[in-house]
Write a structure and sequence with these properties.
Number of domains: 1
Number of strands: 0
Oligomer: single chain
Largest sheet: none
Shape: elongated
Radius of gyration: 19 Å
Number of helices: 5
Length: 129
């Protein structure tokens, strides 16, 4: 692979990585805006066991709790195993829209990062061998 192409891919990778951190920053903001009613109704037994509630309450795992709740709100079918398919009814519309947008953006960005890393590794191990 030509060096110029690798340099261009690296620049794109840096921008995509920056976009990933921007999404993490937005999740940090959304963490403080998660509706209390959602936490009070669903973030307790029988939906989550006591160990999960304790672990996902403090730093740094509280942001993972935010991701979990955003996923349940944005994609209700993902909570079928725990019986959480109707979580979206308790959350406001803005939270559903923001959750779906942030999660889709997150998955697209992570997919792009993996694709670019695979390209770098392909070049490193196959083309240079």
């Amino acid at each position: 692979m030509p060096v110029e192409l690798m340099q261009s891919l690296f620049v794109v990778w840096v921008y995509v990585f920056g976009a990933l951190w921007a999404v993490f920053g937005l999740v940090f903001v959304v963490h403080f805006l998660v509706p209390r009613q959602l936490l009070n109704l669903y973030f307790k037994p029988p939906y989550f066991n006591q160990a999960e509630v304790k672990m996902l309450t403090g730093f740094p795992f509280a942001y993972l709790r935010t991701f979990v709740l955003m996923r349940l709100v944005a994609f209700p079918a993902s909570g079928e195993k725990r019986g959480l398919t109707r979580v979206y009814e308790v959350s406001p519309r803005w939270f559903r829209v923001v959750s779906r947008w942030l999660l889709l953006t997150f998955f697209i960005i992570v997919g792009m990062l993996f694709l670019m890393m695979a390209l770098f590794l392909f070049d490193l191990f196959v083309l240079l061998a």
